[in-house]
Amino acid sequence: MNIRLLLAPRWVRWLVMVALMTAIGGPLWIFLMPDDGSDWTARAVQIPVLSIGVATLLIVVQERFRQSFLAVLDGLDATQRRQAIEASQRGAAPTEAPVLSAAVRLCTLLVGTRLRTPTWARWVAYLVPAGAALIAVARLVDHDVWRAIAWLAVAVLMAVIFWWDARTLRRLQQQLNLLRATAASSLGEVPTLAESEYPAVTPSRKVWLIVVGVVIAMSLIASAAAYLMERAQPGHGITGRSECGKAIATLAVFSEREDLTNSQSILPGGPSLADYEKWSNEIRTRAAQVTRSDLAPRAQHIAELSGQAVSVVRETRKVQGTQREQLQQQVVYAKLIAHMYDEATVVLDVCHS
């Protein structure tokens, strides 16, 4: 944690955290959400709600640390406090006795707080980036490039944060050794901290209750905001939007595999026949979930056309025809894909009307 930000007024910290989380977490949130066919604005409206909620949680959780740091600096004027904070981070040891004593105690508190981190929390530094990287690989295998990039960004971001924290701890330990040596020679003793001056490792029951309350409120507000935005969309109510979501999810499965919709890829050397069959089966599964009378026939027709397209690929791979015959198969395949896109256009027009 940044000591200057931690000791800043609560409203300043809150605004800074909300801004950072919105700028960094917002794009990631949009890309990490599952593709359920919902409008991106319904997702975007959740971002400030989540940023405000998480920032509020951090303010509450960090309060016990803030009070411990302020107690160490108690009795110093603004200039002395700034010098003590700077000396606890880096640079030469201060010469003024009260400032040096406060710098030693503050640096001791910074190092001690980090070293008191529970073992399970330290494992998070390894498991979170590794888990995000594995999800990124899984998304890439499924040809979901954008979400793979988003998860990879999460992995890199978390790895950098944890690496920077470990680097900061090493630097603080070196600075603490310097301050203690200076204090021993100039003050005759090394200032220490009592056990009671350290912040509690585990949040109090009151803090946990506040955290649970904020999480519940944040979830309700985000869900309500997304619901109201969807209701405000022209056309259908919540049932209709849900059906459109299912239909659009069918279109997403069909269109996201550009390598499979390209007629040139059906020749030997392109994607495997198993890829085409998996693609068609997933389209059929998604289409079967659409039940609304003005959408279901379109979705089912797209599924049927995908099956015909797979048959063309199977025939092309089974019999090595002449160049002319292969070209004819590509033309047939291209017409099927074009027909699927025509049906997809109708679905989109219905859902966006």
Automatic annotation (TrEMBL):
The chain crosses the membrane at residues 12-32, 44-61, 123-140, 146-164, 207-229. Keywords: Membrane, Transmembrane, Transmembrane helix. It comes from the Bacteria. This is Integral membrane protein. It comes from Mycobacteroides chelonae.
